[in-house]
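Problem 12. The chain below contains 155 residues. Write out its predicted structure in C-alpha cell notation.
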Amino acid sequence: MEKICLGCKLTKEHHAKGLCFTCYRKLWQPKLIRCKRCQREMPLHAKGLCGGCFNFVYRLDSNKAWNYKKYHNIQPELYEKITKRCVICGFDKVVDLHHLNENKKDNSEQNLLGLCPNHHRMIHEFRYRQEIFEELEKKGYLPPKDIKLLFTKVA
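Solution.
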C-alpha cells in the first residue's frame, strides 16, 4: 500500500507510524535493558541478556567446536576425547592440548596429548622437561627421539 511518507515526503510503501521503511529505521531505537549477567545497559537480545552474554551462555559449545576445527584442525569429538583428563595426573577440570612432537600441523591422534596446565607448562620448561618425558614414558607415550635429544642435559 503506497502512501506519502511523513518523513521524506515521497510516495513509498507504508511501514509504520506513517513512515516508509527507511525513515522508520532512522527513528527506531532498540529497547535497552539491564543484562541479567553482566549488568550493562544494552539492547535486548533474548532471555533477558545482551547479545554477547547470550552467545556466551547459549552458544558456547558450538563456538568451541568451531574453534577446535579452525585453530587445531581436528574434529570436536577427537578434541574432547583427548582433553578429557591429563595423561600424567588425571586432572579433569582444565586440560590443554599438547603436540608430542612439537609440530602443530601434525594432528594425528598419536601425536596429541591432554595435559593439565601445570604439566603443560612443565613440558615447555627446560628444567622440568626431562621429568615429564620420564612420566610420559612410564604411561606408554613415547616422545620422538630428536625432540628428547634436544632437551637432555649434557653431562
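Discussion. The chain has two domains: 35-72, 74-150. Students who got a different answer should revisit the alignment rule from Section 12.3.
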